[in-house]
Description:
- The protein has 9 helices and 8 strands.
- It is of the alpha/beta class.
- It has one domain: Alpha/Beta hydrolase fold, catalytic domain (Rossmann fold, 3-Layer(aba) Sandwich), CATH 3.40.50.1820.
- Strand 7, helix 8 and strand 8 form a beta-alpha-beta unit.
- Helix 2 crosses helix 3 and helix 5 crosses helix 6.
- The model has no long low-confidence stretch (mean pLDDT about 95).
Amino acid sequence: MTEQLLQVNGVELCVETFGDPAAPPVLLIHGGSASMDYWETPFCELLAAGPRYVIRYDHRDTGRSVSYPPGKPAYDGIDLVRDPVGILDALGIDRAHVVGLSMGGGIAQQLGLDHADRVRSLTLIATSPLGDDLPPPTDRIRASFTSAKPPTDWSDAEAAIDTLIADEKLYAGTLPYDEPARRELLRAMIARTTNLESAVTNHWVLPDDDSPPLRPRLGELTMPVLVLHGTEDPLFPPAHGEALAREIPDARLVLLPGAGHELPRPVWDIAVPAILAITAS
Length: 281
């Protein structure tokens, strides 16, 4: 593993790589407020053993990457799309296999459409093409959007972990939830995060993106596409993944039994071989 701070699009982003740089490059893009830590190290090592050259990074305002005051991000969603391209430039990589989860899946779709020359394949995990014709989040998720919650003292690591664990359980599926392991991961994430309040806040207050929706353009994607989707995803029920696979030419859909809006260890034995297969070229 090699972690480094790179100058990307005028800011500093923290990037970590695994494996042989001569192997096919796989760029991992996680969801909103998620640092690279959420791509668990053993998962990255399984891909690197492929062999693959695995790249994970901290979004702006997460981990050790550039941080802005809480509620005042000096960037927008387009910057979050440009950042992975800038990372490839900084690493001297022309084209990479791109794996995106949740918001990272939306970024991956945008990369495939607007930067197709940089993308060898796409893997879209727990994400959506979006649209009013698709099922809404489950009742428990919708209730969480409107329920009043006591404020969290984000400077108190244990209080922060309690809040983050509660949120993870809300979005989890029916597979066993390994709370001790997740607490360990979150404790390590907090220890390397510049400003946790910014990390949990700023991606959700970005300016509205007035660019046209991506969904009508999904038929333009020409690279191989894999869609991985949990059968118990409470935010984007499986119909969202099915729509992606249906509307992207020749996309392959693999359902992850029992998984929610997540990529938990019990489904790695399905997800890792599928990712290695699509990134073999």
